[in-house]
Specification:
Number of strands: 18
Strand content: 15-25%
Organism: Cudoniella acicularis
Bound molecules: flavin-adenine dinucleotide
Family: Belongs to the oxygen-dependent FAD-linked oxidoreductase family.
Pfam family, one: FAD_binding_4
Shape: globular
Distance between the termini: 30 Å
Radius of gyration: 22 Å
Protein name: FAD-binding PCMH-type domain-containing protein
Keywords: FAD, Flavoprotein, Oxidoreductase
Largest sheet: 8 strands, antiparallel
CATH topology of the largest domain: Vanillyl-alcohol Oxidase, Chain A, domain 3
Helix content: 25-40%
């Protein structure tokens, strides 16, 4: 009997059978079929456990640990299942812990909101918005915890706004990581991935949304044509280089890409303003007034938080083949222009892949974001406001057929490496790689820098000295590789 089979037998003996899903059942098919990336759904775990409480998670860890600690049985931890890296949140032949039933969203009198690890942002937005509050949550209503928010220029990364984590450690203990309880763990969890335990609840800060006749946000999408992109790069860099004088209420991304459905290269500005307004504020006008644009697709308007998140969730393909990869560079026109040229040339080579939809997206981390991030206790990412604004460069690709996997990955990896080489040549390269958008050949933990990596390794040794989350949970990016 394999270690995994023994672990399943032990789980069956202790935990409610309806929460342990086995291949062949409808519930198993529903859970395993619901990843964003088809490549992740193709993995077939031997069993899926769906905890309904932190106590269930603790029981799972205690039962599975004897089999998993040496790596002979393994398990995966799954939140919303939106990170496209295959194997990061599913385990072929192993066990998958699907946190999708931990969906509590509870707003407290002190205006913090407790969010279960399986909740989606749309549910969180709904609860806080009803109380006139906002939260630094994901842009997409479907997303899991992590990354950038509409409010990030002002409030920092989403993880910077986690006041405390409830986490199940390798011992099976349910504990809290906050500035006063396990502060090392609290900082490590802000960027350190699934290396320290299973987070069962996030307690997040909220803030009042501006009240008034107009809705508290404004924004949407502006579609335009590729000849307009160089000017948008210039506008982006000019806005970022205002440094402390940049408007902290803006959130913007600019993209160039291709869609086989329409057979054309197109560009997209996604812009938001986090104060009430009925028209584009000055800081956003360079990104909204671009001409010519596709007027019928222009979605700029006043929004409430739930509408904004629903807008970002709409149109996201799910259950297709997906690849994300990214690098970060300093805000520099020549570097970003070179990146766009390299990218467009690479896309030309894969345009005949069925169902191709792909984009190169520049997501800025303005100085205000990096400063706020540090002021809120810092994280383990190794980003420093003193180095100026950062632009995260994301290569996002969706396609239909497995037969195109290798050539698409090769083309995009080649483009990424060329973009990085250009940045090195122009002295604008940064080591940082955003973990949630990283590909399997990238090393986001190493990109945080030697000191941060050593810090994370130390936290792992303190709270998981046997290395359960290193060997027993092989998916995602590990600390000792
Ligand atoms: C449609 C879409 C929209 C997005 N929108 C945004 C956005 O607005 N801003 C942004 O910056 N990013 C965004 N992203 C990227 C996003 O940050 C990540 O996809 C998301 O945060 C991952 O969370 P998840 O719950 O889906 O993780 P999963 O895919 O379930 O897991 C990802 C990794 O985290 C680990 N993990 C998950 N939950 C836990 C837990 N509770 N405890 C320990 N480890 C855990 C898993 O083991 C795995 O390694 C988006 C992605 C998509 C596909």
């Amino acid at each position: 009997m394999s270690s995994t089979a023994k672990a399943i037998a032990a789980l069956q003996a202790t935990l409610p059978v309806e929460q342990l899903l086995l291949p062949g059942s409808d519930a198993y098919a529903t859970s395993n079929g619901a990843y964003l990336a088809q490549q992740e759904s193709e993995l077939q775990p031997a069993a899926i456990f769906q905890p309904k409480s932190a106590e269930d998670v603790a029981k799972f860890v205690k039962i599975v640990k004897p089999f998993a600690v040496g790596g002979s049985a393994t398990f995966a931890i799954r939140g919303a299942g939106n990170m496209p890296l295959p194997g990061c949140a599913n385990d072929d032949g192993g066990l998958t812990l699907d946190l999708g039933f931990l969906t509590t969203v509870e707003l407290h009198e002190n205006r913090t909101v407790s969010v279960g690890a399986g909740a989606q942002w749309s549910a969180v937005d709904k609860v806080v918005e009803a109380a006139g509050l906002g939260v630094t949550g994901g842009r997409s209503g479907n997303g899991g915890i992590g990354g950038l928010s509409f409010f990030s220029s002002r409030e920092g990364f989403i993880s910077d706004n986690v006041l405390s984590f409830e986490i199940v450690l390798a011992s099976g203990a349910i504990t809290t990581a906050s500035p006063i309880s396990n502060p090392d763990l609290w900082r490590a969890l802000r960027g350190g991935g699934n290396n320290f335990g299973i987070v069962t609840r996030y307690d997040l800060a909220t803030f009042p949304l501006p009240a008034g006749p107009s809705k508290p946000l404004w924004g949407g999408n502006v579609y335009y044509f590729t000849p307009g992109f160089p000017a948008q790069i210039e506008a982006l860099v000019a806005e970022l280089k205002k440094g402390k004088d940049a408007d902290p209420n803006t959130h913007l991304l600019i993209s160039t890409g291709y869609s086989a459905q329409f057979g054309v290269n197109m560009c997209l500005n996604t812009v938001y303003y986090t104060q009430p307004t009925d028209e584009a504020p000055p800081a956003l006008q360079p990104f909204t007034n671009i001409e010519p644009q596709v007027q019928t697709l222009n979605s700029l308007k006043p929004l409430n938080l739930t509408e904004a998140a629903a807008g970002q969730a709409a149109g996201v393909a799910s259950h297709v083949r997906v690849s994300y990869m990214n690098v970060a560079v300093k805000a520099d026109v020549a570097t970003l222009q070179a990146a766009a040229d390299i990218y467009n040339a690479a896309v030309t080579r894969i345009k005949n892949a069925t169902g191709l939809t792909c984009s190169l997206t520049f997501q800025p981390y303005p100085v205000s974001l990096l400063e706020t991030s540090a002021a809120k206790g810092g994280n383990s990412l190794g980003l420093d406001a003193a180095h100026g604004p950062v632009v995260s460069v994301l290569l996002l690709t969706y396609w239909n057929s497995k037969k195109d996997d290798a050539r698409i990955t090769e083309a995009m990896k080649g483009a990424l490496e060329s973009i990085q080489a250009q940045a090195v040549e122009k002295t604008t390269a940064l080591k940082y790689v955003y973990l949630n958008y990283a590909a399997d050949f990238q090393d986001p933990i190493g990109s945080y820098g030697g000191l941060n990596k050593a810090f994370l390794q130390g936290v792992s040794k303190t709270h998981d000295f046997e290395g359960l989350f290193q060997k027993g949970v092989p998916g995602g990016f590990k600390l000792f590789t």
